[in-house]
Design goal:
The protein has two helices and 20 strands. It has 268 residues and is mainly β. Strands 1, 2, 3, 10, 11, 12, 13, 14, 19 and 20 form a ten-stranded antiparallel beta sheet that branches. It has a six-stranded antiparallel beta sheet with strand order 4-7-8-9-16-17, with no helix packed on it. It has a two-stranded antiparallel ribbon with strand order 5-6. Strand 12 and strand 13 form a beta hairpin.
Length: 268
């Protein structure tokens, strides 16, 4: 009996560890490439992460000022994504189109093995909850410019419903540290009529300090005239009081939360 008890005690931790360990081929990974809080969920599978450039259907509707419409995207190697009517197809040009494009870093680029696009979901509010996350798509450039500089940049787009969306431009190694040189420019132009445009902005872009976030609602863009991150609205007094009360309760009960950051397993 004593030996049996000892055997159970010795194997129980292993059984618990095995039960708690996620299956390597089925788990979701939370990826945070920016210095701002983010809850991002993408399956680490080939049907979600598509290596290389190309085109495809946007996973949600977009409103560029003419109502919510279905668009295809054209992921260009030279640092921009353009949007065309569903089924219109992508051209082979390397110049910026006249309209309906977002260019995180437009220049002559040679893509590397980790250039990819993928679909997933993003929860924009804390506490992060995957069941509350919205459809999202990301475009990642891992490339070198004509001067041999390593370029890391990302465009993340998040569905807000009814054609409304956020997009986030990120820079630097793992999109949170390092910087991207001034060999390329950032710009966008969205809208078939009276387009909302962002004049070209030259680098360098410091990934640790600059996270360019824009929000399109009813075809109107917030803070598109200049600057980096649009101003964040201060919480109302009642919301602030509730937040402080919740924080005090957490401290009183000794509950500690810890953000988990994991880095996408890029292939080389």
């Amino acid at each position: 009996m004593l030996r049996a008890r000892q055997a159970i005690r010795s194997t129980l931790p292993l059984l618990l560890l095995a039960a708690l360990s996620p299956a390597a081929h089925a788990h979701r990974v939370a990826i945070d490439f920016s210095t701002a809080p983010n809850g991002e969920y993408f399956l680490a599978t080939s049907d979600v992460n598509h290596f290389g450039t190309g085109g495809g259907a946007m996973p949600f509707l977009l409103n560029f000022g003419d109502g919510a419409q279905a668009y295809d995207f054209c992921f260009n190697a030279d640092g921009f994504v353009s949007f065309v009517g569903s089924g219109a197809g992508c051209g082979a040009g390397t110049s910026l189109p006249a309209n309906n494009y977002i260019a995180p870093f437009f220049t002559d680029l040679t893509p590397g093995g980790n250039t990819l696009w993928g679909v997933g979901t993003v929860d924009l509010t804390t506490p992060f909850n995957q069941s509350e996350a919205s459809p999202a798509i990301r475009f990642i450039w891992d490339a070198t410019d004509s001067g041999g500089n390593q370029i890391f940049t990302e465009l993340m787009m998040v569905d807000l419903g009814a054609g409304n969306f956020n997009f986030d431009l990120r820079y630097g190694d793992n999109f949170g540290t390092g910087s991207v040189p001034n060999t390329g420019s950032q710009s966008f132009s969205l809208g078939l009529t009276s387009p909302v445009t962002r004049a070209p902005l030259a680098g360098p872009f410091d990934g640790a300090e600059q996270d360019f976030v824009y929000s399109f609602v009813d075809g109107v863009c917030a803070a598109c005239g200049g600057g980096t991150t649009p101003p964040v609205s201060a919480p109302e007094p009642s919301s602030l009081a509730l937040t402080m009360l919740a924080g005090g309760m957490l401290m009183a009960f000794g509950i500690r939360t810890r953000r988990r950051r994991s880095v996408l397993d890029f292939r080389r």
